[in-house]
TrEMBL record:
Signal peptide: none annotated. Coiled coil: none annotated. Residues 23-273 form the EAL domain. This is Diguanylate cyclase/phosphodiesterase. It comes from the Bacteria. The keyword Thylakoid does not apply. The chain holds residues 372 to 646 of 657 of the full protein. Keywords: Membrane, Transmembrane, Transmembrane helix.
Amino acid sequence: AKNEGGKRVQIFEPFMHEDFLMLRQIESGLTDALENDEFTVLFQPIIDLATGRTKSCEALLRWKHPELGDVSPAMFIPVAESAGLIGDITEWVLRKACEAAAEWPEDVHISVNISPALLKQNNLPVTIIETLVNTGMVARRLELEITESVLLDKNPHTNSLLRQLQKMGLRLCLDDFGTGFSSLTYLRSWEFDTIKIDKSFIRNIGNSPTDQKIIGAVVQLAKSLDVATVAEGVETEEQLSRVREAGCSRVQGYYYARPMTAAQATERLVQEELP
Ligand code: C2E
Ligand code: CA
Ligand code: CA
Ligand code: CA
Protein backbone atom coordinates (compact mmCIF):
# COMPACT_ATOMS: atom_id res chain seq x y z
CA ALA A 1 0.00 0.00 0.00
CA LYS A 2 2.81 2.42 0.82
CA ASN A 3 4.26 2.56 -2.66
CA GLU A 4 0.84 3.65 -3.97
CA GLY A 5 1.27 6.94 -2.12
CA GLY A 6 2.70 8.73 -5.11
CA LYS A 7 -0.34 8.02 -7.23
CA ARG A 8 -2.87 9.05 -4.63
CA VAL A 9 -1.50 12.57 -4.36
CA GLN A 10 -3.33 13.31 -7.62
CA ILE A 11 -6.59 13.08 -5.72
CA PHE A 12 -5.86 16.42 -4.03
CA GLU A 13 -7.01 18.41 -7.07
CA PRO A 14 -9.49 20.97 -5.66
CA PHE A 15 -12.29 20.16 -8.10
CA MET A 16 -12.17 16.60 -6.91
CA HIS A 17 -12.63 17.53 -3.29
CA GLU A 18 -16.00 15.83 -2.88
CA ASP A 19 -14.80 12.68 -4.56
CA PHE A 20 -11.83 12.74 -2.28
CA LEU A 21 -14.03 12.98 0.82
CA MET A 22 -16.11 10.12 -0.44
CA LEU A 23 -13.01 8.01 -1.07
CA ARG A 24 -11.83 8.81 2.46
CA GLN A 25 -15.24 7.78 3.79
CA ILE A 26 -15.04 4.54 1.85
CA GLU A 27 -11.51 3.89 3.02
CA SER A 28 -12.29 4.45 6.70
CA GLY A 29 -15.55 2.52 6.36
CA LEU A 30 -13.72 -0.44 4.86
CA THR A 31 -11.47 -0.68 7.88
CA ASP A 32 -14.43 -1.71 10.06
CA ALA A 33 -16.60 -3.36 7.46
CA LEU A 34 -15.45 -6.91 8.16
CA GLU A 35 -15.79 -6.52 11.92
CA ASN A 36 -19.21 -4.89 11.58
CA ASP A 37 -20.48 -7.65 9.33
CA GLU A 38 -21.28 -5.29 6.47
CA PHE A 39 -20.14 -7.58 3.66
CA THR A 40 -22.07 -10.34 1.95
CA VAL A 41 -21.12 -12.61 -0.91
CA LEU A 42 -23.51 -13.32 -3.77
CA PHE A 43 -23.11 -16.12 -6.30
CA GLN A 44 -23.77 -15.96 -10.01
CA PRO A 45 -24.12 -19.20 -11.97
CA ILE A 46 -21.95 -19.83 -15.02
CA ILE A 47 -23.83 -22.13 -17.38
CA ASP A 48 -22.27 -24.86 -19.49
CA LEU A 49 -23.92 -24.51 -22.91
CA ALA A 50 -23.42 -28.17 -23.80
CA THR A 51 -25.40 -29.44 -20.81
CA GLY A 52 -27.47 -26.38 -19.85
CA ARG A 53 -26.30 -26.84 -16.28
CA THR A 54 -24.28 -24.76 -13.87
CA LYS A 55 -20.56 -25.34 -14.23
CA SER A 56 -19.44 -22.85 -11.60
CA CYS A 57 -20.67 -19.92 -9.56
CA GLU A 58 -18.74 -16.66 -9.31
CA ALA A 59 -18.48 -15.16 -5.82
CA LEU A 60 -19.27 -11.44 -5.98
CA LEU A 61 -18.73 -9.25 -2.96
CA ARG A 62 -21.37 -6.80 -1.73
CA TRP A 63 -20.94 -4.05 0.83
CA LYS A 64 -23.61 -2.05 2.64
CA HIS A 65 -22.01 1.05 4.11
CA PRO A 66 -23.97 2.36 7.14
CA GLU A 67 -24.38 5.83 5.58
CA LEU A 68 -23.59 5.46 1.90
CA GLY A 69 -25.70 2.33 1.44
CA ASP A 70 -24.71 -0.18 -1.23
CA VAL A 71 -21.29 0.61 -2.64
CA SER A 72 -20.24 -1.14 -5.84
CA PRO A 73 -17.22 -3.43 -5.66
CA ALA A 74 -15.93 -1.69 -8.78
CA MET A 75 -15.68 1.38 -6.53
CA PHE A 76 -14.45 -0.05 -3.23
CA ILE A 77 -12.14 -2.88 -4.33
CA PRO A 78 -9.53 -0.46 -5.71
CA VAL A 79 -9.71 1.49 -2.42
CA ALA A 80 -9.30 -1.72 -0.43
CA GLU A 81 -6.26 -2.54 -2.58
CA SER A 82 -4.54 0.78 -2.04
CA ALA A 83 -5.40 0.79 1.69
CA GLY A 84 -3.83 -2.63 2.16
CA LEU A 85 -7.14 -4.21 3.16
CA ILE A 86 -7.66 -6.51 0.19
CA GLY A 87 -5.82 -9.45 1.80
CA ASP A 88 -8.19 -9.73 4.76
CA ILE A 89 -11.22 -9.13 2.58
CA THR A 90 -10.19 -11.80 0.07
CA GLU A 91 -9.53 -14.27 2.86
CA TRP A 92 -13.08 -13.67 4.08
CA VAL A 93 -14.58 -14.00 0.58
CA LEU A 94 -12.63 -17.22 0.00
CA ARG A 95 -13.97 -18.69 3.22
CA LYS A 96 -17.59 -17.70 2.49
CA ALA A 97 -17.27 -18.98 -1.07
CA CYS A 98 -15.81 -22.34 -0.06
CA GLU A 99 -18.34 -22.76 2.76
CA ALA A 100 -21.14 -22.22 0.26
CA ALA A 101 -19.62 -24.51 -2.38
CA ALA A 102 -19.16 -27.29 0.17
CA GLU A 103 -22.98 -27.59 0.11
CA TRP A 104 -23.19 -27.89 -3.65
CA PRO A 105 -22.92 -30.92 -5.96
CA GLU A 106 -19.29 -31.91 -6.24
CA ASP A 107 -18.94 -31.18 -9.94
CA VAL A 108 -19.85 -27.50 -9.47
CA HIS A 109 -16.87 -25.16 -9.19
CA ILE A 110 -16.55 -21.94 -7.24
CA SER A 111 -14.90 -18.92 -8.90
CA VAL A 112 -13.26 -16.26 -6.75
CA ASN A 113 -11.80 -12.95 -7.96
CA ILE A 114 -8.21 -12.44 -6.93
CA SER A 115 -6.92 -8.91 -7.02
CA PRO A 116 -3.56 -8.46 -8.81
CA ALA A 117 -2.12 -6.86 -5.65
CA LEU A 118 -2.34 -10.24 -3.88
CA LEU A 119 -0.24 -11.91 -6.53
CA LYS A 120 2.69 -9.77 -5.48
CA GLN A 121 2.63 -11.09 -1.92
CA ASN A 122 3.60 -14.44 -0.51
CA ASN A 123 0.73 -15.48 1.70
CA LEU A 124 -2.01 -16.25 -0.84
CA PRO A 125 -1.16 -19.97 -1.25
CA VAL A 126 -1.15 -20.49 2.53
CA THR A 127 -4.44 -18.66 2.94
CA ILE A 128 -5.97 -20.80 0.22
CA ILE A 129 -4.70 -24.08 1.63
CA GLU A 130 -6.02 -23.18 5.09
CA THR A 131 -9.38 -22.25 3.65
CA LEU A 132 -9.64 -25.48 1.68
CA VAL A 133 -8.75 -27.55 4.73
CA ASN A 134 -11.13 -25.69 7.04
CA THR A 135 -14.06 -25.96 4.64
CA GLY A 136 -13.38 -29.45 3.36
CA MET A 137 -13.11 -28.31 -0.25
CA VAL A 138 -10.85 -29.85 -2.87
CA ALA A 139 -8.49 -27.59 -4.81
CA ARG A 140 -9.89 -28.67 -8.21
CA ARG A 141 -13.22 -27.06 -7.39
CA LEU A 142 -11.73 -23.66 -6.72
CA GLU A 143 -11.11 -21.42 -9.70
CA LEU A 144 -9.24 -18.16 -9.30
CA GLU A 145 -10.26 -15.34 -11.63
CA ILE A 146 -7.31 -13.15 -12.47
CA THR A 147 -7.59 -10.12 -14.72
CA GLU A 148 -5.40 -10.17 -17.76
CA SER A 149 -3.74 -6.93 -16.66
CA VAL A 150 -1.80 -8.93 -14.09
CA LEU A 151 0.19 -10.64 -16.82
CA LEU A 152 1.26 -7.35 -18.35
CA ASP A 153 3.63 -6.31 -15.65
CA LYS A 154 6.03 -9.14 -16.07
CA ASN A 155 6.68 -9.46 -12.37
CA PRO A 156 8.78 -12.60 -11.77
CA HIS A 157 7.19 -13.01 -8.35
CA THR A 158 3.69 -13.06 -9.83
CA ASN A 159 4.86 -15.65 -12.32
CA SER A 160 6.15 -18.05 -9.71
CA LEU A 161 3.09 -17.53 -7.54
CA LEU A 162 0.76 -18.39 -10.43
CA ARG A 163 2.79 -21.53 -11.13
CA GLN A 164 2.59 -22.47 -7.48
CA LEU A 165 -1.19 -22.05 -7.47
CA GLN A 166 -1.45 -24.21 -10.58
CA LYS A 167 0.67 -26.90 -8.96
CA MET A 168 -1.67 -26.90 -5.98
CA GLY A 169 -4.39 -28.02 -8.41
CA LEU A 170 -6.35 -24.78 -8.48
CA ARG A 171 -7.99 -23.71 -11.69
CA LEU A 172 -7.06 -20.40 -13.22
CA CYS A 173 -9.39 -18.18 -15.21
CA LEU A 174 -8.13 -15.25 -17.27
CA ASP A 175 -10.76 -12.59 -16.48
CA ASP A 176 -11.71 -9.46 -18.42
CA PHE A 177 -10.24 -10.90 -21.58
CA GLY A 178 -10.11 -8.26 -24.31
CA THR A 179 -10.11 -5.17 -22.10
CA GLY A 180 -6.39 -4.67 -21.80
CA PHE A 181 -3.62 -5.18 -24.27
CA SER A 182 -4.69 -8.75 -24.66
CA SER A 183 -2.04 -10.87 -26.05
CA LEU A 184 -3.03 -14.25 -27.27
CA THR A 185 0.44 -15.43 -26.35
CA TYR A 186 -0.72 -15.47 -22.72
CA LEU A 187 -2.87 -18.39 -23.66
CA ARG A 188 0.14 -20.22 -24.95
CA SER A 189 2.50 -19.58 -22.07
CA TRP A 190 -0.06 -20.06 -19.30
CA GLU A 191 -2.13 -23.07 -18.57
CA PHE A 192 -5.37 -21.23 -17.97
CA ASP A 193 -8.35 -23.51 -17.68
CA THR A 194 -10.77 -20.79 -18.72
CA ILE A 195 -10.83 -17.38 -20.30
CA LYS A 196 -13.68 -15.01 -19.66
CA ILE A 197 -14.55 -12.72 -22.54
CA ASP A 198 -15.40 -9.33 -21.10
CA LYS A 199 -18.97 -8.16 -21.23
CA SER A 200 -18.01 -5.09 -23.26
CA PHE A 201 -17.61 -7.45 -26.24
CA ILE A 202 -20.89 -9.22 -25.60
CA ARG A 203 -22.87 -5.98 -25.39
CA ASN A 204 -22.31 -5.23 -29.08
CA ILE A 205 -22.22 -8.70 -30.45
CA GLY A 206 -25.66 -8.36 -32.06
CA ASN A 207 -24.81 -5.35 -34.21
CA SER A 208 -21.08 -5.61 -34.58
CA PRO A 209 -19.94 -8.27 -37.05
CA THR A 210 -16.38 -7.33 -36.09
CA ASP A 211 -16.90 -8.13 -32.41
CA GLN A 212 -18.55 -11.38 -33.40
CA LYS A 213 -15.56 -12.27 -35.58
CA ILE A 214 -13.10 -11.43 -32.82
CA ILE A 215 -14.98 -13.58 -30.35
CA GLY A 216 -15.14 -16.41 -32.86
CA ALA A 217 -11.39 -16.25 -33.40
CA VAL A 218 -10.63 -16.13 -29.68
CA VAL A 219 -12.90 -19.10 -29.06
CA GLN A 220 -11.28 -21.14 -31.84
CA LEU A 221 -7.81 -20.41 -30.52
CA ALA A 222 -8.87 -21.25 -26.96
CA LYS A 223 -10.39 -24.50 -28.17
CA SER A 224 -7.20 -25.51 -29.92
CA LEU A 225 -5.38 -24.96 -26.63
CA ASP A 226 -8.04 -26.85 -24.67
CA VAL A 227 -9.10 -23.73 -22.78
CA ALA A 228 -12.79 -23.19 -22.01
CA THR A 229 -14.41 -19.84 -22.86
CA VAL A 230 -16.99 -17.97 -20.80
CA ALA A 231 -19.05 -15.17 -22.34
CA GLU A 232 -19.79 -12.68 -19.56
CA GLY A 233 -22.76 -10.30 -19.43
CA VAL A 234 -25.18 -12.22 -21.64
CA GLU A 235 -28.50 -10.48 -21.11
CA THR A 236 -30.59 -11.26 -24.18
CA GLU A 237 -31.64 -14.23 -26.25
CA GLU A 238 -29.92 -12.71 -29.27
CA GLN A 239 -26.61 -12.37 -27.41
CA LEU A 240 -26.97 -15.94 -26.27
CA SER A 241 -27.45 -17.27 -29.77
CA ARG A 242 -24.51 -15.21 -31.06
CA VAL A 243 -22.10 -16.51 -28.44
CA ARG A 244 -23.40 -20.00 -29.08
CA GLU A 245 -22.71 -19.55 -32.80
CA ALA A 246 -19.22 -18.29 -31.94
CA GLY A 247 -18.65 -21.56 -30.08
CA CYS A 248 -18.33 -20.27 -26.49
CA SER A 249 -18.48 -23.13 -24.04
CA ARG A 250 -20.07 -21.26 -21.12
CA VAL A 251 -22.15 -18.18 -20.43
CA GLN A 252 -22.72 -15.94 -17.44
CA GLY A 253 -25.25 -13.14 -17.33
CA TYR A 254 -28.65 -11.84 -16.37
CA TYR A 255 -30.28 -13.87 -19.15
CA TYR A 256 -29.70 -17.01 -17.08
CA ALA A 257 -29.31 -15.71 -13.55
CA ARG A 258 -28.40 -12.64 -11.52
CA PRO A 259 -26.05 -12.92 -8.57
CA MET A 260 -27.96 -14.65 -5.73
CA THR A 261 -27.51 -15.64 -2.10
CA ALA A 262 -25.76 -18.85 -1.13
CA ALA A 263 -29.10 -20.38 -0.11
CA GLN A 264 -30.68 -19.50 -3.46
CA ALA A 265 -27.69 -20.90 -5.33
CA THR A 266 -27.86 -24.14 -3.35
CA GLU A 267 -31.57 -24.47 -4.12
CA ARG A 268 -31.00 -23.88 -7.82
CA LEU A 269 -28.17 -26.41 -7.98
CA VAL A 270 -30.18 -29.03 -6.15
CA GLN A 271 -33.04 -28.49 -8.61
CA GLU A 272 -30.66 -29.00 -11.53
CA GLU A 273 -29.55 -32.32 -10.04
CA LEU A 274 -33.08 -33.71 -10.07
CA PRO A 275 -33.79 -36.10 -12.96
P1 C2E B 1 -16.01 -8.92 -12.79
O1 C2E B 1 -15.06 -9.87 -12.15
O2 C2E B 1 -15.83 -8.66 -14.24
O3 C2E B 1 -17.47 -9.50 -12.47
C1 C2E B 1 -18.56 -9.48 -13.36
C2 C2E B 1 -19.47 -8.32 -13.10
O4 C2E B 1 -20.49 -8.31 -14.09
C3 C2E B 1 -20.21 -8.40 -11.77
O5 C2E B 1 -20.38 -7.06 -11.31
C4 C2E B 1 -21.57 -8.99 -12.17
O6 C2E B 1 -22.60 -8.71 -11.23
C5 C2E B 1 -21.77 -8.29 -13.48
N1 C2E B 1 -22.70 -8.98 -14.37
C6 C2E B 1 -22.96 -10.31 -14.47
N2 C2E B 1 -23.85 -10.57 -15.44
C7 C2E B 1 -24.18 -9.38 -15.99
C8 C2E B 1 -25.07 -8.99 -17.05
O7 C2E B 1 -25.74 -9.79 -17.70
N3 C2E B 1 -25.12 -7.65 -17.33
C9 C2E B 1 -24.39 -6.72 -16.64
N4 C2E B 1 -24.53 -5.44 -16.99
N5 C2E B 1 -23.55 -7.06 -15.64
C10 C2E B 1 -23.43 -8.37 -15.32
P2 C2E B 1 -20.16 -6.68 -9.76
O8 C2E B 1 -20.67 -7.76 -8.90
O9 C2E B 1 -20.69 -5.30 -9.59
O10 C2E B 1 -18.59 -6.64 -9.62
C11 C2E B 1 -17.81 -5.68 -10.29
C12 C2E B 1 -16.33 -6.02 -10.21
O11 C2E B 1 -15.87 -5.93 -8.86
C13 C2E B 1 -16.01 -7.44 -10.64
O12 C2E B 1 -15.96 -7.49 -12.05
C14 C2E B 1 -14.68 -7.64 -9.95
O13 C2E B 1 -13.65 -7.06 -10.72
C15 C2E B 1 -14.85 -6.86 -8.67
N6 C2E B 1 -15.18 -7.78 -7.57
C16 C2E B 1 -16.38 -8.23 -7.14
N7 C2E B 1 -16.24 -9.07 -6.08
C17 C2E B 1 -14.90 -9.15 -5.83
C18 C2E B 1 -14.09 -9.85 -4.86
O14 C2E B 1 -14.57 -10.61 -4.00
N8 C2E B 1 -12.73 -9.66 -4.93
C19 C2E B 1 -12.16 -8.85 -5.88
N9 C2E B 1 -10.83 -8.72 -5.88
N10 C2E B 1 -12.89 -8.19 -6.81
C20 C2E B 1 -14.23 -8.33 -6.78
CA1 CA C 1 -14.59 -12.02 -12.37
CA1 CA D 1 -15.36 -8.72 -16.60
CA1 CA E 1 -13.12 -7.06 -13.69
